[in-house]
Amino acid sequence: MTDAQLYTVVALVAYALAMTLIGIISYSRSKTLDGFLIGGRKIGAWSTAFAYGTTYFSAVVFVGYAGQHGWNIGLGAIWIGIGNAILGCLISWLLLSNKTRKMTKKLNARTMPDYFEKRYASKGMKILAAVIIFVFLVPYSAAVYKGLGALFSAVFPSVETWVWMLIIAVLTGVYLVAGGYIATSYTNLVQGVIMIVGVVCLVVAVLSHDSVGGISGLVENLSNFQSASGDPNPVTGSQLTDIFGGSSFKFLCFNILLTSFGTWGLPQMVGKFYAIKDTKAIKRGTIISTIFCVVIGCGAYLIGSTSRLILGGTLPEGGIDAVIPTVLMEVLGNGTLGVILLAIVMVLLLSASMSTLQSVVLTSASAVAVDLIPAVSKKEITSKNQVLLTRVLCLAFVACSFIFATQNIPIIVSLMSFSWGIVSGCFIGPYVWGLFSKKITKIGAYAGVLSGLLTVGGTTLVISLTSGFSAAASKSPEMGVTAMAISFVVVPLVSLLTKNKPEEQKRVEEIFACYKEE
Length: 518
Known about the structure:
The structure is a single chain. By secondary structure, the chain is mainly alpha-helical. The chain has a single domain (3-27, 36-516), classed as Sodium/glucose cotransporter (Up-down Bundle). It has helices spanning 3-26, 33-38, 45-56, 59-72, 78-107, 112-120, 123-155, 161-207, 214-223, 237-241, 249-261, 267-275, 279-305, 307-310, 323-332, 336-376, 383-405, 412-436, 442-467, 469-474, 476-498, 502-512. The radius of gyration is 22 Å and the shape is globular.
């Protein structure tokens, strides 16, 4: 065993024990349905802010997005991190957090499907939303597995990737099933600290590499970069240093929009607002979460932009998904300090992935246990049994996503983009408009969900049949952004044409009174 492997194993074992201990400690506070799903609505600013940020950024951001876009676009890719921090975090918290907290508390809604049912008085919408979440978040979580598996395989080349995926699945399942949202909020706080320390260390190490030469050297060396002959993705120095992405400007814009506004409709993201305890915590959480996203997002894409210099312009054997793992081994694979930093970075990426995975798993399991099964069951299910069922389904979902991840599906960015686009495209319109407007109708909300689903699903089917799935995969950001835009426009338009009946409007007025109650 090499020094790098030894330090990494020690760090991982310590991390695993800490996460398991947190899960055990949290068990007593997660026996009720509210406690298991939303922490009793008593989660503080720091835990919520870090939970939001760590759910936002998984290993896919580093391995997939930062690796691919940093390699192909260069410095312009940093705009994705900036957009994520401002649009996906700051604006989201300012506009949505307090209204979401107040309305879901008024409705006693614990999940996105639960919110839809009680806001629009529609059990059918609850069932539809639960099915969409369960079906389309499987590939989302699979992308998390694949991203992290690729990284660990770079450090432990003799160990099969699926072994690391299995370890991740087991560890996530243990502490999530034991402690529910309480455990995830505590672990997110620990994971967030690890992520900040790891990213700062990695940025310093990458910029200090001889081929980079600091910030000034990065710009100068990239401007002089020339692709080797036979490079399948040739770029010029002007492309890599163009702050607006050069020829990739349109592609860059769509990715910023998808990965930023997409958080507004993802149930595992907005669910964090259900649990935060009060307005004061929201004000603090907004600042903390935004700073966290700036550090992690911009740091990841800055690291990605150095990849062509560090790797000499040669794409690794594993393709675009192997760019960041190879960079890590090149920069941190030698010397005692380097391997210690490598161990820290591996724990950082494990933390990032597990925090995302646990949020996705809890969201999906609750969609079935709390929303779908009670809605279609003829027998009443007690709260105690729902908690038990949710724990069991958490394990089942971890297993399903693990099996999906082990299939030979390349390009982890495409997996994430499709899932992100479909889920957010379905929910963003009904969710956001439902918070702000009393005039949104049940039919309008239905139209928003179905339009988002058909936009991504229908377009993917047509392109796949005519040009192949790879062509559809290349269009996943455009499809996701289009779905979100259509959903956002369709909801108020259809609501304007249908309008609420007087008795329904009275019910809606009572719901919106929650904004004046505090």
